[in-house]
């Protein structure tokens, strides 16, 4: 069972910059975790083979379910992706574009950096 992590509250009415989301070890290898930031849910993913981190909204726009952090990760022709665990809509973790229905859906992506064993997410 993947746990939700709640950290800093989102500052009201101003740009937040980077926030410390979780410890590196809180995100399963080749999987995702859900981070709560204020009223938002952000899905964080770590691809061990690529040693790359990604963050997106957790809401799947297809059926409006908070589920992407539990999605199936992989790649499509070298493009890192996540597929919704319910209806298998696939999204690029780099661009947010829907790979299974191009132009129909898109998810928000966030920049990620690792510092001192913590995952930091860039937010507006």
TrEMBL record:
Rieske domain: residues covered: 19-121
InterPro entries according to UniProt: NasD-like, Rieske-like_NirD, Rieske_2Fe-2S, Rieske_2Fe-2S_sf
Keywords, ordered alphabetically: 2Fe-2S, Heme, Iron, Iron-sulfur, Metal-binding, Nitrate assimilation, Oxidoreductase
PROSITE patterns: NIRD, RIESKE
Keyword Zinc recorded: no
One family name in Pfam for this protein: Rieske_2
Aminoacyl-tRNA synthetase as UniProt keyword: no
PANTHER family noted in UniProt: NITRITE REDUCTASE (NADH) LARGE SUBUNIT
Protein name: Nitrite reductase small subunit NirD
Organism in which the protein naturally occurs: Compostibacter hankyongensis
């Amino acid at each position: 069972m993947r746990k939700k992590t709640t950290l800093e509250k989102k500052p009201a009415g101003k740009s937040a910059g980077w926030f410390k989301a979780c410890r590196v070890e809180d995100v399963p290898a080749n999987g995702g975790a859900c981070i709560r930031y204020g009223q938002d849910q952000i899905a964080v993913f770590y691809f061990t083979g690529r040693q790359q981190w990604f963050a997106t909204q957790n809401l799947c726009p297809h059926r409006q379910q908070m589920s992407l952090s539990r999605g199936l990760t992989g790649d499509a022709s070298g493009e890192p992706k996540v597929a919704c665990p319910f209806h298998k809509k696939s999204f690029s973790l780099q661009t947010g574009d829907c790979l299974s229905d191009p132009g129909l859906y898109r998810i928000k992506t966030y920049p990620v950096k690792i510092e001192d064993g913590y995952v930091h997410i860039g937010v507006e």
